[in-house]
Amino acid sequence: MITISASQLVEEANAEIETITVEDALKLQDDDGVVLVDIRDIRELKREGRVPGALHAPRGMLEFWVDPASTYYREVFGSDKKFVFFCAGGLRSALATQALQRMGLNPVAHIGGGFAAWRDAGGPVEKDEA
Fold first, then answer.
1. Is 9 part of a structural domain of the chain?
2. Band of the pLDDT at 130, cuts 50, 70, 90?
């Protein structure tokens, strides 16, 4: 039997991390000091579309891509940029942001409402070619 629900984990993560609004995220999309990081599954990107210029880092590999000691390390995470994570609705990205912040990656934040909020606010979306 579980003792902490997924929603409790998300609530705890949100208490520890920076959440930015989609309006603020839209203002950051052309900021060279910020990397927008889409952690959704590749199937979600194909189905829903992508934020132009966002780095795709699947949630299942994220900690490994961030860790310089990992064989999966991606140099982009060694930069001095701010990383703003998002998923479909803001739940997975809250947990991911908390985990990466605990690992020492800073500055980090996530977009409240995720990709759905981005799309609904009129943010640019690219669709994959069929």
1. no
2. low
